[in-house]
Design brief:
By secondary structure, this protein is α/β, with parallel strands linked by helices. Helix content is 43%, strand content 15%. The relative contact order is 0.14.
């Protein structure tokens, strides 16, 4: 039997699917979902749930002790676009929640931690194409600054205190079960919803903005594979680059037009354009490929088919 797992931020875009997948792998009772508010029906009905503020150390510790939690996946965070509007709240949530979990691991109350980083750790001075694992970073967003600081702290806790913390730098994630919230890559999900509902989409990024993206099934598989990997294989304790596909809004619109011939896209770039322009356009993930056999399965065409098929079923 797998020891109990706690997902913090289980109701978000990644947390929902991660919780459901871990429950089918390890048994519903062994995977405790938690969030500041209740989530969608599929998640809430699939197993145990606790209301939990990730920034409250005592509250997190209580849940960890009560369920004898062994592993924590910390998925709660404020994403890039929202964080620009509320810098101090973003810093507080993104950093304090991480310290709470790292400190529980340092005190040996839990044994393993997953914490997501992001392509947002990179900045305008980073090489844009095939961005290497180690390179100039200098993030220029509140979210990116919090993720880069988080990476430094993860590596520090691993080196100084032996904390088994594992992380990937997620690209923009595309999924149909739960909407993303407050990110710069959210257009790549909204576009499918609007294509089916309205036959058109006004994109908040310019048509030629190429960003690294990934279908959620790949992201969940990467996360679980990294957590399953023998500890000695994991050389990077800050966060692994993780590549899936790279495309522009224009290319995404073209792939939708293959299935909805009348689909029309217009462009009205807003403040998120500057954020997107500071991020890589493609990612070199050779370290993840070499050290834990990472390989993505979904390209843009397959993603479009999956998204349209699944959204059609739930929008009926
Ligand atoms: N998808 C995130 C965002 O756009 C990046 O990690 O903020």
């Amino acid at each position: 039997m797998h020891k109990p797992i706690l997902i913090i931020g289980a109701c978000g875009q990644i947390g929902t699917e991660l919780t459901i997948e871990l429950r089918s792998k390890y048994g519903a009772e062994n995977v405790i979902a938690s969030d500041i508010r209740e989530g969608g029906e599929a998640l809430m009905q699939s197993g145990p749930f606790e209301l939990l503020d990730a920034t409250d150390y005592e509250a997190v510790e209580d849940v960890v002790m009560h369920y004898e939690i062994d592993e924590v996946y910390l998925m709660a965070a404020m994403l890039s676009a929202t964080a620009e509007k509320f810098p101090m709240r973003a810093w507080n949530l993104n950093m304090n929640s991480l310290f709470n979990v790292l400190n529980l691991a340092k005190e040996k109350k839990i044994t393993k931690v997953f914490w997501p980083s992001s392509i947002a750790v990179f900045g305008p001075n980073t090489p844009k194409e095939n961005t290497p694992q180690s390179t100039i970073m200098e993030p220029s967003t509140v979210y990116g600054i919090s993720k880069q600081s988080g990476e430094r702290w993860c590596e520090y806790y691993h080196k100084k205190y032996g904390v088994d913390v594992r992380s990937v730098r997620y690209p923009g994630l595309i999924s149909w079960k739960t909407m993303p919230g407050g990110g710069t890559t959210d257009y790549a999900v909204e576009i499918y919803h609007e294509a089916l509902k309205k036959g058109g989409y006004e994109c908040f990024l310019d048509g030629n903005t190429q960003l690294p993206m990934m279908y959620m099934d790949d992201a969940i598989r990467a996360t679980i594979n990294l957590m399953d990997c023998p500890t000695e294989n994991i050389k990077v304790r800050s966060s692994y680059n993780l590549g899936g596909m790279s495309f522009t809004p224009k290319q995404m619109a073209d792939s939708i037009t293959q299935h909805i011939p009348d689909f029309e896209i217009t462009y009205a770039p807003d403040f998120r354009q500057e954020i997107a322009d500071s991020w890589p356009s493609s990612i070199d993930d050779s370290a993840a490929r070499e050290e834990w056999d990472w390989e993505p399965r979904f390209n843009l065409e397959q993603t479009t088919i999956e998204m349209l098929d699944n959204l059609k079923t739930i929008q009926k």
